[in-house]
Amino acid sequence: MPSPATHPPSPESRCPCGTGEVYGSCCGPLHSGAREAPTAEALMRSRFCAFAVHDAAYLLRTWHPSTRPEELELDGTILWQRLEILGTQGGPFDDAARVRFAAHYRSRPGIPPEERVRGVQREDSRFLREDGRWLYVDGVVG
Ligand SMILES: [Zn+2]
Prior knowledge:
Radius of gyration: 15 Å
Bound molecules: zinc ion
Number of helices: 3
Largest sheet: 4 strands, antiparallel
Strand order of the largest sheet: 1-2-3-4
Helix content: 10-25%
Shape: globular
Number of domains: 1
């Protein structure tokens, strides 16, 4: 199934990353390039949110060049539902950080019952800050 086109939420709707803020003042400005993520955790949230709204360009833009894939095809059958930040390492004055999270997903409506999935992806992700911008490096799943 081809990935659906990017479909950003309206600025007034609740941000998919789960901060409780609206998209227009949470991950929206990061996705549009109006602002940079101030912390690794904010970048992590905005990347989860980019998966949720199928913004592959943002995911590639925030990926460290040493580990960035040539291209990224998002699984259009998966609905990323909820993000839990389990822990972070690295403060505002560090240029390296780790974020542990659990991302909850399930199949989109319309997927045949025998193909439906639902689960949680747990990952310990590494981030580096270069030229003032946080970038995702890699992560250990599990
Ligand atoms: Zn957000």
